[in-house]
Design goal:
single chain; mainly alpha; two-stranded antiparallel ribbon; disordered N terminus; disordered C terminus; OGF_rcpt_rpt; OGFr; Opioid growth factor receptor; OGF_rcpt; opioid growth factor receptor activity
């Protein structure tokens, strides 16, 4: 197994250029001839067969060194990159200002954002637009699309007009993948209504994994870094928990997780992947000893079907228990005085204690407050054993 301690995700010090050099030396083996730099869109060839249909040759107990090096270089702001002399040209800005068409044989960005939304065949088969919609500082295979310059990056971040178009471009591609942006402020995403057909396309057309990696990189480069972790978490849930996207799983582990520039968020994502990866002994994307000790700093967003459970105060992932309020019983309203307040306070204390790990107790205890003498009771439910 590779030495995952070389990954700066788990280092104690701040990430810097020296860390990048260390990561470049990370052990690993080339995992297959199909590995490509994730930031580039493969225009010339379609996959010979869907990834989901082939036996995985890369899950052999070693990190994908090409992915590790590529994502490390991105996170450390391309320390070896010599920026081109653009002579004042800013083609990426001009495109996002709706002043020029993308090349080759392209159209204006507003045409894409307004008219391509439901044209999935066009979004799938055209291989030239993605480098313009989500530019990077590294070159891609479309030589007409020029790498971002640092000057362009600053304007992208400061222009409200450009930021709005970038978010719309992100929503366009999410829809193409069967995903919807639920909250622009937090970056929360969820399944779209047509997710089943779009997921099928994702499983069969693996070049979209390269596009997603490019999108994640571009978001982090252009001021929308808070969109990265929610999207990666979504793909980890769909690949490792729900197992709906087997064709995306390897890219989610090798590339998507390590596109997240916030180190704390990256740790939480790697920890989530480690918790749900099977067999766990084959997990090579983080150090096992540190993963066992790691405690997520905040409660992770529940799976889509469990959001209501979280709002109701139940632990994420628990099935709803039979509610005692649906059966006849004493009214929760007590007489005036201190007794109801004390009972409510006691209930809150007990519930806080019961949320701690107690294997011998029911997972979702409930309490009742009623009558003059408020009382608390644990009510088991059939749902607990299912």
């Amino acid at each position: 197994m590779d030495d995952p301690d070389c990954d700066s995700t788990w280092e104690e010090d701040e990430e810097d250029a020296e860390d990048a050099e260390d990561e470049d030396c990370e052990d690993g083996e080339a995992a297959g001839a199909r590995d490509a730099d994730a930031g580039d869109e493969d225009e010339d060839e379609e996959p010979e067969e869907p990834r989901a249909a082939r036996p995985s040759s890369r899950m052999t107990g070693s990190r994908n060194w090409r992915a590790t090096r590529d994502m490390c270089r991105y996170r450390h702001n391309y320390p070896d990159l010599v920026e081109r002399d653009c002579n004042g040209d800013t083609p990426n800005l001009s495109f996002y200002r709706n002043e020029i068409r993308f090349l080759p044989n392209g159209c204006f960005i507003e045409d894409i954002l307004q008219n391509w939304r439901d044209n999935y065949d066009l979004l799938e088969d055209n291989h030239s637009y993605i480098q313009w919609l989500f530019p990077l500082r590294e070159p891609g295979v479309n030589w007409h699309a020029k790498p971002l310059t640092l000057r362009e990056v600053e304007v992208f971040k400061s222009s409200q007009e450009i930021q709005e178009r970038l978010i719309r471009a992100y929503e366009l591609m999410l829809g193409f993948y069967g995903i919807r942006l639920e909250d622009r402020g937090t970056g929360t995403v969820g399944r779209a209504q047509n997710y089943q057909k779009r997921f099928q396309n994702l499983n069969w057309r693996s070049h979209n994994n390269l596009r997603i990696t490019r999108i994640l990189k571009s978001l982090g480069e252009l001021g929308l870094e808070h969109f990265q972790a929610p999207l990666v978490r979504f793909f980890l849930e769909e690949t490792l928990v729900r197992q709906e996207l087997p064709g995306v799983r390897q890219s989610a582990l090798d590339y998507f997780m390590f596109a997240v520039r916030c180190r704390n968020q990256r740790r939480q994502l790697v920890h989530f992947a480690w918790e749900h990866f099977r067999p766990r002994c084959k997990f090579v994307w983080g150090p096992p000893d540190k993963l066992r000790r790691f405690k997520p700093s905040s409660r992770p967003r529940p799976l889509e079907g469990s959001r209501k459970a979280e709002e109701e105060g139940r632990p994420a992932g628990d099935e709803p228990a039979e509610s005692p309020s649906e059966t006849p019983g004493p009214s929760p309203a007590g007489p005036a005085g201190d007794e109801p307040a004390k009972a409510e306070e006691a209930a809150e204390v007990l519930l806080a204690w019961l949320r701690l790990p107690h294997p011998a107790l029911p997972r979702t205890p409930v309490f009742r407050v009623g009558g003059r003498a408020a009382f608390l009771s644990l009510v088991p439910s059939k749902a607990f054993s299912e």
